[in-house]
Amino acid sequence: MTYEGENVQLSEGNTRYYLEGSSNNDDPVIVCLHGLSGGVFVWEQFSKEITKHGGFRLLRYDMYGNGKSGASEKTHNKELFVEQLKDLLDHLKIEKVNLLGHSLGGMVSLLFTDKYPDRVETVTLFSSAGMKWNLYGTGFIKMFPGTSGFFFEQFLKIYSVDNAIAATFFDAEHCKESVQHYSQYIKDSGLSHFVKGTMKSLSDFPLAAGCVEEAKRVSNMNKKIMIVWGQYDNTVPADDLLPQWEETIPNAKFYAVKWVRHDFMSEEPSICCELVTAFVKDEEISSDKISKFRKHKNPEAVPLGMKDKKLKAFWAKKDEAMLM
User: Fold this and answer.
1) By residue range, what is the domain housing residue 55?
2) pLDDT tens digits along 248-273
């Protein structure tokens, strides 16, 4: 049964959230922050794994303008999303959290930690934005957001939302449930609402500029930080951003999950759950243990494109122990 979530009116609009897992208020809270064009739906499979695991409370929510949260009339800047999380935690009377941010949500996690360090225990970043990045097309979107949104919506109608979602997985055949869940949630939320939120964030949020100075300050706080990438993530490619992360936050733990793309928490939810829970509990993480949770699939059956081959070469030069 899918949990329907709750709605709360925060300072800048309605927010849909899901608080799941343990009923013990003393258990650690993991907050899942989705990325651009995302929502609570990207954490559905991960949530099921955490619930089975036990011992944790999981909070996931739709950022303003995404999913079933309302669209704020304000600029989708750093402060908007940071304050939304603070407002939500205040409403739920949750003081300390373990942040788990994906893509744009990773950048929000760091910005929140920089501003409210006393409320954060650990930070985990999944294929995170936050470093300087040549993000092509954002200049046109900033100049012509309405036109960009119109063409994006037409593309999704012609190409189909299902096909666009499937492209975010390394082997969509093994992720049919996630593809269907993503697609249905977006349709239920309204395609125009989905497109408007995406365009507004691309136009307003400093994805390309990153948050390098804030990340450095967080690194100097000596908090536990883990950075995880999808081996074949060609949405936020590791060869562009990971070297910058390694230089900016050298004290972080770094891992990569084999044979996945950008939304790897839906492709390999058991592995992601094991990584995150072990990290939060300060337990040993080993590739031998992680491999036991891997879904059965044949990576040789997936044809590699030019970007994939470039990423394969990049990871071949990294420490083998990083690949899980």
Assistant:
1) 6-135+207-322
2) 999 999 999 999 999 999 999 999 99
